[in-house]
Structures are given as C-alpha cells and as structure tokens.
Amino acid sequence: MSDNIRSSDSKLRQNADNGREKLLLVGAAGQLGQTLLQTLDRDRYEVLTLTRQDVDISDESAIVAKLNALSPSVIINAAAYTAVDKAETEDLEARAANATGPKFLARWAAANNAWLLQVSTDFVFNGHQHRPYTPDDQTDPPGIYGRTKLEGELHVGYLAPKHSLILRTSWVYSEFGHNFVKTMLKLMQSKDKLGVVADQIGTPSSTWEIARCINQALDVRPTGIMHWSDAGVASWYDFAVAIQEEAIQAGLLETEIPVNAITTRDYPTPAKRPPYSVLDKSATIEALACQPIHWRRALRQVIRRLGDSQSS
Question: For residue 204, which of 178, 165, 169 has the smallest C-alpha distance?
Fold first, then answer.
C-alpha cells in the first residue's frame, strides 16, 4: 500500500433509528452527484444531499450550520466549478467552489471525526511528463481551474490528513449535465464536419466507473491521495471518433461526418490544457481491489443509456 494511502481509523457514527450511517453528498445535482445517487447503498447509508441551491459551501457559517444539523460521518464532495475556460476570468467563483468550500468541509470533518472524500482533477499537473502521473508526482497546474482545485487539495490534506481521501480523476462525462460526449453528439447532429484536438492525451472517465471506485473506497476509508480513471489512453480526437462510432451503432446519430485531427494551436482556448494527463492508478487498484474497465467499453454503456433515455 502506498505511503499516500492509509486506512482511516475514524469510528463510524450511525443513525440510532435505523442503524444506517449518515452520508452527505455535496454537489448532488452535478453529473457525478446524480450518478452517485443511483449507486450508493441505501441499506447501508442514509444519503443526505446538498446542492448550490441549498447552501454556498464557501460561506463558512452557512456550511458549518448545515453540517452540524446533519451530523454526517461521511462526506463526499462532488461539488466543483468546472468551467475551465471561464475560470480564467471568474477566478473568485472558481476559488470559492474549488478551494474555500473544501477547506471548510475538511475542517469540520477533522473536528467531528468524519471521513471526507474530495474529488479532484488531472489538471493539477502541467502535462509535460510522458508517463502516467502518480499521486506523488509534482503538481504544477497550467490554469486557474487546476490551481484552485490544487488549493482545495492542499486545504484538505493539511486540515484533515487522517480524515480525508483526495480522489483525482480525468475527462469526466456521463449522460447527465454538460460534458464532452454530449457536446460532440450535438455538434455531430448539426455540423458537416468537425476538427478535434489530437495532441492532448489523457483518459476519459465515466461517472459510473468513478462511482464504482468511490463505493469501493467507502468500504476501506483510505486517506491521502488516489488516482482513478477508466483504463487505456486517448486523445480528444480519438474520443470524438469513438463517440460518433458508438452513437451511430446505438441509433443516436444517423449520419457519419468527417472528424479531423487538429493541433492545440489550431484551436486556441483561454485556458491552457495539460498535453499529457494520464493518471497512474496502480496504487488505487491495489488498495481498493477495484479494476478499471477500458474507456471505450465505459463509453458504450453511457451511449446506450443516452439512447434509452431518448427512446423512453
């Protein structure tokens, strides 16, 4: 087991009425939050939820009052500001959600013997290395989004080292919310051709597979930093081509359009992206006994869910 991963020794608080442990899901309306709501074990957990409409997690008095009232023994923080390009000009909003909120959650978790799982990102790395990033590798975020997520990690690790797990993941998508898969499907329905960046390499991660990893982590309650994504590697171009192929096979798209490989220079964006952000999951696989499935297989499952939702 990695030095970054230690079993949590916190005692479990249970609801005296039903014997279930209180689990608070922060960011329940997001794409990972919506997936977790469908996968958490309701026989084991009394699942409590918070969304942006319920409370501003960067308001310390408000979030502490909520936490005191709910008294969870487990907190999963799936809330985040994820608009990577907008973060370059909305840095205060990004920092509030990605750094300040996690700081208050971590402080409360440590003081109340709770376990916090903080979801983070591959964007904490600059992408200049050419092997999968381990949890111990040097961080160096290329943009505001990654910097604020790293700030959140640092707060959590400093304030609740024995009561928290930071779980980094990458290229997150699902049938919920806004993400690359759903954007590509819309563009493929409306455009004659597409150009997609081929010189940024990473790994897509279905929220269903991230949720499976989180459920395994709930059994172990490790602390430190872990990495998780689906198996394999891809460029955004590879991902887009696969999306079209799977969507045509599932009947979501009728016509194939040309998808052309372009460079990052051909598609400038306000925020820099790491050119390589594959995550090394070996320590996570060992600690949680959880094997990732290939990203193409996970994509096929999400595409099928999208097809089922449109036909129902």
Answer: 169
**Using one digit for the tens of pLDDT, what is the confidence trace for 95-111?**
999 999 999 999 999 99
pLDDT band, residue 216 (cuts 50/70/90): very high
The Cα 260–Cα 266 span in angstroms is 12
- For residue 13, give both structure tokens: 């608080």
CA distances from 307 to 88, 174, 192, 210, 250 (A): 35, 12, 22, 21, 7
**Treating both helix axes as pointing N-terminal to C-terminal, what angle do 31-39 and 207-220 enclose, rounded to 10 degrees?**
60
Q: Which of 81, 133, 145, 173 is catalytic?
A: 145
Contact predicate 153/218, CB 8 Å: no
Nearest to 169 by CA among 35, 23, 271, 45: 35
**Residue 145 known to be catalytic:** yes
